[in-house]
Amino acid sequence: MGEAKKRSAAAVQEALVALGVEAIGGRVQVRWNRGEAATPFGQMAYFAEFLNLTGLYRRWIESCPLRFASPNGSKITDVLGTLFLSVLSGHWRYAHIAALRADAVSAAVLGMDTVVSEDTVRRALIAMEEAAGMSWLQEHLDASVLPLLSAPWILDTDVTVKPLYGKQEGALIGYNPHKPGRPSHAYHTYQMAGLRLMLNVTVAPGNASHANTTLPGLLELIERLPGEKRPALVRGDCGQGGEPTMAALEARGMHYLFKLRLTKNVKRYIERMFATPEWADAGQGWQGREGSIQLSGWSRARRIVILRRALQGEVLLTDKQQLSLAFVEKDVPAKGYEYAVLVTDLDYELRAIAQLYRDRGDAENAFDELKNQWGWGGFTTHDLKRCRFTAMTVALAYNWWSLFVRLAHPKARLEAITSRPLLLSGIGRLTSHAGQTHLSITPMHARAKDARALLTAVSERLKAWKSAAEQLPFASVWQRVCEFIATHVTGFNWLARQNPPQLMHCT
User: Fold this and answer.
1) Alpha helices (H) along 210-349
2) How far apart are CA 87 and CA 288, in angstroms?
3) What's the whole-model pTM score?
């Protein structure tokens, strides 16, 4: 029996086993179609085109240091593609890979033969040498960001705590604001503000100190960047700004802005300031004052900015033993204030300093997106090595997707909870006929017309850049992508530069 007859017979058999389902809206005849390739990510083809024409994905695959001892082992393309597809889907456990095993369409557009099992992915990651694997992932994380660091930019640092509930390597008790006493991992992160792109993430044991982890990672990152691409400002919360960090940045001629912990000495300084009336408007309901202080352990006096905001409405107060509500009437002069104390070497006016730190709130949005929409901190294993691999892979996939979405929608940043349903999801059916592959997309989004217009425009723009790159080899598609984002998102005019930017592994 020929293939056509076999498919016809299979279709007849499927029809014969149709089941009637008594749904709320009435009886529905259900047929299980096992012969047609389909995917819930029908619009993946457009993202795959972006990855293909920029060369980002191909270079990532080709430079992977993973090697299988057996010639019958899974292909690297399939292993990495499976992990990438799982991360892109928003998964946070290896077990979730099972939901992708029948998705031959997404596998095809990513150049895979098949989606491999979760065990295959686990074994592959444990087989990869850690130093080589981390160097490989860092190289491509750098490549996804470096071309965009030509305009003045801000580096945000942070530490995110991941509570653990097993006997994982590095599961130690340290600072854990949400679950005190719970063993955890600490994710020390470094982010490009504005575009919200990740530069690095270090997964460390829960008790790792800032001095032993964040600071060395920060300095290594800075030293790795060419001088003209180093940040104009390093910014962080009260866990990042200490004497070693500030002294190291000062020695390198780099500006910083950190929030100080409200220690006893800092509180005493605030009390002295409180008694004086010279508070200036710091914007958005905040007042500010500035001065100079040399705290214990500091090598010298530094500029500090004290910000305060009157408490209004129902405020939850803590008194060691109990919680109580304090009611502050709007028409009554406030008796309570919220304080923030900043330390910086910038000479900007007070209001500008206050706004610069308020802008850091956007970095918290990025960390929240990574944790809750990208499964960052997921894919937990007993060994720390694979946790580090997956954290870096998530950061890389997040960067690629963020850049693609910015290319499609430069006017506003769309988080994954919005961009995935709009630009990725849709029922896709793949067929082949007369040597051609056809993808039929059935959109499910209320803004399907907008999605089609955005994706079509991106595809046309990429193909135009490809055509130009074939005639002007130095003007690669990836370079054009970075120029477009820099011009339309950051407002930085690359065309005014005398020399094109130096692109790392992106020719």
Assistant:
1) 215-224, 243-251, 264-274
2) 43
3) 0.88
Q: Among all chains, which residue has been given the structure tokens 């477009």?
A: 484
Of 335, 355, 375, the last residue of a domain is 355
pLDDT at 254 over 70: yes
pLDDT band at 500 (very low <50, low <70, confident <90, very high): very low
Angle between helices 477-485 and 44-54 (to 10 degrees): 110
Instruction: Provide the 8-state DSSP code for 292.
Output: E
C-alpha distances out from residue 373 to 367, 394, 400, Å: 10, 11, 15
3-class DSSP state of 130: helix
Quote the domain boundaries for residue 277. 256-355
Assess whether pLDDT exceeds 50 at residue 320: no
How many residues are listed for the chain in this entry? 507
Pair (382, 273) in one structural domain: no
What's the CA gap between 116 and 356, in Å, rounded?
Answer: 46
Same structural domain, 144 and 275? no
Output 458-465 pairs: Cβ under 8 A, ≥24 positions apart. Answer: 458/46, 458/50, 458/404, 458/407, 458/408, 459/46, 459/49, 461/407, 462/49, 462/50, 462/53, 463/53, 465/53
**CB of 441 closer than 8 Å to CB of 449:** no
Per 3-state DSSP, what percentage of the chain is helix, strand, and coil (rounded to 5)?
A: 45, 20, 35
Helix (H) or strand (E) holding 324: strand 322-328
For the chain, the domain total comes to 3
CB atoms within 10 A of CB 332: 9
Beta-ladder partners of 327: 314
What is the arithmetic mean of pLDDT over 60-68?
94
Which two tokens mark 127?
A: 């087989």
Q: How far apart are CA 168 and CA 165, in angstroms?
A: 8
